[in-house]
């Protein structure tokens, strides 16, 4: 091959390579490689309702917030955090699809809550709302009672209990020299049925009633101008059996009784010339053991008691002088005073219950002063006034029970005499 032919072949080959190069370049320009863009995180957003610093908020509020969904991102779900800490860390509900939720777990009364919402997408990217706070409402105080005149005769120093899905009322003082041993029950607090007119135990007042071992129990009291220490029980409220006619504790009235640590407990009370500060318990209602003959608190009767925060509590009462000290014990032997004088004034004949994770005390009197207030505490130390100057609380020696997640106040007495009205608070 001569030199001219070789040069021609080389030129053709170069032209081919150039054509191939520019052809590939053209294809790349017309169809570039697709590179996916990263998903956008949820947008920043704010809380709407309940408004920040709101008060008197419902116990079942609807909480709502702005949408955090980014048009260029994937779908978003929300986690709601709600609690009493400054930065709430308790997850109330996760993977919420919308921008609101109606709470189904009832919040506590008079409690400051904080809440926040975290938005999250499918890639795990998140956005958090600001933290807001609100305070729930007070206990509702109705203007009128469930009934102004229940079926039972007006009375005080009776006992009450909740048993077999009913409210129960037993005995009491119906006049200066008139006592009762009637047993009444009600499914709604308005309509009352006489379950036993002659139950076996004597007419009495200043006794106590507890529910233990699926039975109603009636303990001690004052009958026919004498003090007794008998104990009775019933499985239906109609047929009664005497567990003991002479318990190990001395005859008395004005004591308190409650169930704690699977035992019946009896605290204080008094007889003709003696006021007690002893504490007794029983695992069967028949045999009674003295936890202490002299508790750290002073002798007292007509005091208030309740079980709260895994302890037994004693509040107020009288040893000849009205009291307002508060004590608690985990075992009935060792008693601790939470404070020398509580915010509520000295009183006897008040009643107490454990409700809504709080300790409540209502009513009572001194020799010269009728109380008409309601107080609560979350720790037994700090007490807050939540109701006063209200006919609901203007009474002493009344019944007070928690039934159907409400507080019920039943009968008692005030300056106008004995009462048979029934009030409900929630």
Brief write-up:
The chain is mainly β and 426 residues long. 7% of the residues lie in helices and 46% in strands. It has 1 helix and 32 strands.
Please give a structural write-up.
The structure is a single chain. The strands form eight sheets. Strands 2, 4, 5, 7, 8 and 9 form a six-stranded mixed β-sheet that branches. The chain has one helix at 3-30; strands at residues 47-49, 54-57, 62-65, 76-83, 91-96, 100-102, 112-121, 126-128, 132-136, 159-163, 166-175, 178-186, 192-196, 208-212, 215-223, 226-234, 240-244, 256-260, 263-270, 275-282, 289-292, 304-308, 311-318, 322-329, 336-339, 351-355, 358-362, 373-377, 384-388, 399-403, 406-414, 417-425. It has one helix and 32 strands. The chain is elongated and about 85 Å long.
**Average of per-residue pLDDT values:** 91
Number of helices: 1
Give the percentage of residues in beta strands. over 45%
What is the C-alpha radius of gyration, as a whole number of Å?
36 Å
Distance between the termini: 113 Å
Number of strands: 32
In the predicted model, the low-confidence regions spanning at least 5 consecutive residues are: 3-10, 12-31, 33-37
Helix content estimate: under 10%
The structure class reads: mainly beta
Global geometry: elongated
- What is the makeup of the main sheet? 6 strands, mixed
């Amino acid at each position: 091959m001569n030199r001219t032919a070789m040069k021609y072949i080389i030129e053709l080959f170069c032209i081919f390579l150039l054509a191939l190069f520019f052809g590939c370049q053209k294809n790349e320009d017309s169809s570039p490689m697709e590179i996916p863009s990263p998903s956008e995180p949820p947008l920043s957003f704010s809380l709407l309702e309940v408004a920040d610093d709101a008060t008197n908020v419902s116990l079942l509020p609807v909480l709502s917030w702005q949408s955090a969904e980014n048009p260029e991102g994937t779908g978003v779900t929300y986690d709601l955090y709600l609690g009493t800490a400054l930065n709430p860390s308790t997850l109330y509900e996760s993977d919420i699809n919308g921008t609101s939720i109606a709470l189904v777990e009832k919040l506590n009364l008079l409690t400051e809550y904080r809440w926040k919402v975290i938005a999250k997408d499918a890639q795990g990217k998140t956005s958090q709302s600001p933290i807001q706070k609100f305070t729930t409402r007070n206990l509702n105080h109705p203007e009128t009672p469930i009934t102004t005149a229940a079926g039972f005769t007006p009375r005080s120093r009776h006992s009450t209990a909740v048993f077999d899905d009913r409210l129960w009322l037993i005995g009491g003082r119906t006049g200066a020299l008139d006592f009762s041993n009637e047993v009444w029950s009600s499914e709604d607090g308005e309509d009352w049925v006489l379950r036993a007119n002659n139950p076996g135990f004597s007419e009495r007042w200043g006794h106590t009633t507890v529910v233990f071992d699926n039975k109603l129990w009636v303990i001690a009291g004052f009958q026919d101008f004498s003090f007794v220490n008998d104990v009775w029980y019933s499985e239906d409220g109609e047929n009664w059996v005497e567990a003991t006619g002479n318990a190990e504790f001395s005859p008395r009235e004005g004591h308190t009784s409650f169930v704690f640590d699977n035992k019946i407990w009896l605290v204080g009370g008094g007889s003709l010339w003696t006021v007690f500060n002893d504490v007794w318990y029983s695992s069967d209602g028949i045999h009674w053991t003295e936890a202490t003959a002299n508790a750290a608190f002073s002798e007292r009767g007509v005091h208030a008691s309740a079980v709260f925060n895994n302890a037994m509590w004693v509040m107020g009462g009288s040893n000849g002088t009205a009291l307002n000290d508060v004590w608690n014990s985990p075992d009935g032997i060792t008693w601790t005073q939470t404070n020398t004088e509580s915010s509520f004034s000295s009183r006897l004949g008040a009643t107490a219950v454990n409700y809504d994770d709080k300790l409540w005390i209502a009513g009572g009197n001194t020799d010269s002063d009728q109380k008409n207030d309601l107080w609560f505490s979350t720790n037994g130390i700090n007490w807050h006034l939540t109701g006063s100057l209200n006919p609901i609380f203007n009474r002493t020696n009344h019944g007070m029970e928690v039934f159907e997640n409400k507080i019920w106040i039943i009968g008692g007495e005030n300056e106008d005499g004995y009462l048979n009205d029934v009030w409900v608070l929630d």
